[in-house]
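Hey, quick one: can you model this chain's 3D structure?
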Amino acid sequence: MLKALRSRRIAACATVAGLSILVAAAPAVAETRSGAGDEGYRVSSLGGRVSYPGQGASSAPGTSVKALEALFAHIGYHLDRVRERGIVPRLLVREMPGDLREVRNVQRRKAVFIRIALPLILATNEAILRDRARIQRLRATQDRRRPIPVEDAWWLWQTFVAYKVEPFDFEELLRRVDIIPPSLAVAQAAEESGWGTSRFVRRGNALFGERIYRGTDGMVPSRISDGQSFRVRRFGQLLAAVVAYASNLNTHPAYRAFRAERHAMRAEKGRLDAPALAAGLEAYSERRQAYIATLRAIIRANALTEFDHLRLDSGRPRFAEAPTGDPVRLSN
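Sure thing. Here's the predicted structure for all 332 residues.
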């Protein structure tokens, strides 16, 4: 698999391909209980902290499936309702529930996984679209031969660098600064993490199984082919894994065909066809065409394309996290 990617840290801000993940504590106010006893979540109503009491600092991964389902019920987060309204709560879960793999009912396990993954993917796509709109505005400014403000020029230069594009090649930049269809992202996350049950996602929030070939800050696979040497990249929380995944597809040379087809779909149809785009991900797995077939089967069997037109609610982000952790926010 070709999943290695580069990241950069500046002070308290980790920048991945133009998306800034700012580590900052959110205010814990107007807290309510989800009604799940000591394992229940507390939800802050002001942009903020969703913490689960009764979990020590060493508790990783997250709390129980039962407690998370109680939280979902408390805020009215049901997939049927999401399909009907087209709106997803802006709830960002930090880690997979520790006992998700113990849920024997497949449909229940999938429903929990999808409800965790959707807001993370939509939040990442939302930030990408903000960047994309800003790039288009600045391109129009330049085309009219008007000066670009210094602050915007600096941001634009950083974005060209982050996306590994030659300065002022707006066509290539816009080919890269674009979303990953939610159905495709959910399918890949499901396949790579075993619907949230793999050792790598439980121990390191590695939702997409990205590999690193340098350094030691990663998880060692229990089985590895002869001649290979890599680790699975570890993340502080699930949102960081989603942002890194989008960066990988949007910058790595192996996914040039994926980006070209996405760009063509934008120009010709004005919308993205996730099953068709999956063809550009052959390099993601050593299984090649079989991997693509698996992704398409997951999308089809779980009707995931129904989620491609969803949007997050208009509220401020709420975070599901251990009480000792800090939430991660997407900012531009």
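One thing worth noting: Residues 1-16, 20-62, 322-332 have pLDDT under 50 and may be disordered.
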